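Appendix C reproduces, verbatim, an entry submitted by the partner laboratory led by Prof. M.T., so that reviewers can inspect both the input and the predicted structure.
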Amino acid sequence: MSAITHDEDLDRTRPDAASLRRHVERTAAHAFVGCALVMSILCGAIIVAGWFAGVIDDRGERFFWAGAILGFVAIVILGLAALPGGDDDVRTTRRVRWMLRAGILLFLFSPALCIAALIADYYG
């Protein structure tokens, strides 16, 4: 029976760079699809409700368009994160993780602004 050092034990439990890259790229693809679906449902519901934010005269419309633009930027960032590319697994994993964090952060504010616009327009 061979003695296993602490470093060897850690290396066995730590995923290798290629499997970690596959995991974050798959997560980016799922986040892209989920965010695109949520934004399309949200915008579709607003269109079906008959609310129109086309003139940008009041505060509610500005909130809506700010949310729509943030949602578009978030979906673009998550789409770029989901694209495969790069030969270096560590650098690609770092890039995808950064883009995931940025895209999800922007996406959190996007529907909130769109829904806040509807509430502000209703009460304002």
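The mean pLDDT is 82. Additional entries are available on request from the coordinating office.
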